[in-house]
Design goal:
By secondary structure, the chain is mainly alpha-helical. It folds into two domains: 337 residues, no CATH class; 115 residues, no CATH class. It is 59% helix and 4% strand. Strands 1, 2, 3, 4, 5 and 6 form a six-stranded mixed β-sheet that branches. The relative contact order is 0.12.
């Protein structure tokens, strides 16, 4: 009973921190999830204008020249189902959309997801006969890993639900007697978070075979089903969208030049500085324990392999708060507990080893791989952010209210990503999509400049031609936007039609 109370109190405290933190920090991924959840109040259809326009932007706009972009119609083809990913797990949240606000729901679920990682770590460690001291220490070590302390502050990717569901899958898998009904349900929940995670579950099963030197016919069947689900789903997505996903685009380009080119490119990616940081950070915390686990070295490398070999921009290396690291976090914890459990007969050495790793983790900067000037404690960081963002929340909420008032109730808007979550209840599009069909366009505003030079967009490195803003503004003038009299909200301009 005491442990349940501790879990509930921890959940409330994490929710409290995230609710205020998320007011002004969430971007387009959280926004399109929020739009789907908001639509669930009225319909079971997964509809999101922001998500659909992001898919279009990936295909038509990002990385293209101004001339190419300005000659496009900039309309969104996908108006109903966002089949860029299969996010069936979202339907689990539908009933809660009827009883609470979407921002509240998102903060509660995000807090629950990351709390579940720590709960799994502690109780799985206890199942492997670690005493309560060592179980607590390895739980603290997990909270120091950047996938936890950075991930909890990231956007609300639907993929994050894979963390608790994969933890359940491993919990039911690594038992003396496997409950196949419970295992199958956990697996179904896990693959419902993203179509690609069938591969992750199959990898977990293969790792189980290797570690315990067993081959199980039922588990082989499950692994085959999971693999087929992933391959068929990815093929359907590419067929439906007519687009090439970043991951498959990387793989096709890597393999298209023949064996020598493939080896050269993969070797180059392995020697990349960010890849080395990725490997070092994982090794210096949980990875070293995974390596010393009996027969866990190959599974450890196997679960990291996609992040080691694939390079689609760098987020899959050191973008710790992104969804690119979700698939291997729980298996990494699994292997690390198997490793430290080898010292169960040497409790003092076990405790000292965990204390040393925790001490190391507080000094490592996960983005540079170098040592920090001051230590970074995850629990203190949570407290500090909770205090800071609660203090700032009235300012952020005031900004949101003024932005809502400037845009107008029920009005559509093409906008830049940092503002998207503030206006998730509106029909929003990823700028410059649908500028000819919306009621408002929101751009950055520089009061020190004059004329159209006052307005600018934010590229996030996806646009490399500064002339794009000029040509978009020209199209907006043709469409009757009042560029002379924008509504100014801090450093943002809400541009309406005349």
């Amino acid at each position: 009973m005491k442990k349940l109370v501790i879990i509930i109190i921890s959940w409330v405290l994490l929710f409290y921190t995230l609710y205020f933190y998320q007011i002004n920090t969430q971007l387009a991924d959280t926004t399109f999830t929020a739009q789907i959840l908001e639509n669930f109040r009225h319909s079971p259809v997964m509809n999101t204008t922001m998500g659909n326009s992001i898919v279009e932007s990936m295909d038509q706009i990002w990385g293209k020249s101004a001339q190419d972009v300005c000659n496009l119609p900039l309309t969104t083809r996908f108006t109903t189902l966002p089949w860029f990913h299969y996010y069936f797990a979202l339907y689990l949240l539908m009933p809660f959309t009827w009883i609470m606000s979407i921002p509240t729901l998102i903060a509660i679920v995000q807090a629950g997801i990351y709390l579940s990682v720590l709960v799994f770590t502690y109780y799985y460690a206890r199942q492997k006969n670690l005493n309560w001291v060592s179980s607590t220490l390895i739980t603290i070590l997990v909270s120091q890993h950047p996938l936890w302390i950075e991930g909890i502050y990231g956007q609300f990717y639907i993929n994050r639900l894979f963390l608790p569901f994969s933890a359940l899958f491993i919990w039911f898998l690594d038992n003396k007697k496997i409950n196949y009904s419970a295992l199958g349900l956990a697996g179904l929940l896990a693959i419902s978070t993203n179509e690609i995670y069938g591969i992750a579950l199959a990898t977990i099963i293969v790792s189980y075979f290797w570690i315990y030197k067993v081959i199980n016919r039922k588990l082989c069947l499950l692994a085959t089903v999971y693999l087929l689900y992933s391959f068929v789903s990815v093929a359907l997505i590419q067929h439906n969208l007519g687009l090439v996903l970043p991951q498959t685009d990387f793989l096709s380009k890597t393999a298209s030049g023949g064996l020598s080119v493939t080896i050269e490119r993969l070797t180059s990616d392995l020697l990349d500085q960010k890849t080395q940081i990725f490997l070092w950070v994982n090794l210096a915390s949980l990875g070293i324990l995974a390596i010393v686990a009996r027969r866990a070295l190959l599974p450890f490398l196997l679960i990291l392999l996609p992040n080691l070999l694939i390079n689609i921009g760098g987020a899959e290396k050191t973008g710790w708060s992104t969804h690119y690291h979700t698939s291997y976090f729980i298996p990494l914890i699994w292997f690390s507990i198997l490793g430290i459990s080898r010292l169960n007969n040497h409790k003092r050495l076990q405790t000292i080893s965990l204390v040393v790793l925790i001490s190391l983790s507080v000094w490592i900067n996960p983005y540079t791989g170098k040592f920090r000037q001051t230590p970074h404690f995850s629990l203190y960081d949570l407290y500090q952010k909770s205090h800071d963002y609660h203090t700032l929340s009235p300012i952020y909420l005031n900004f949101r209210n003024r932005l809502e008032e400037a845009v107008g109730s029920g009005q559509s808007v093409s906008l830049l990503e940092p503002l998207s979550y503030h206006l998730y209840t509106h029909e929003t599009y990823y700028y410059p999509h649908n500028i000819e069909g919306v009621d408002n366009v929101i751009l950055r505003y520089d009061k020190s400049k004059i004329g159209d030079a006052r307005f600018s967009s934010i590229s996030y490195g996806r646009q490399f031609d500064p002339a794009m803003d000029a040509c978009i503004l020209s199209r907006m003038q043709t469409q009757g936007y009042d560029l002379e009299n924008p509504l100014i909200v801090d450093d943002w301009a809400v541009i309406k039609r005349k």
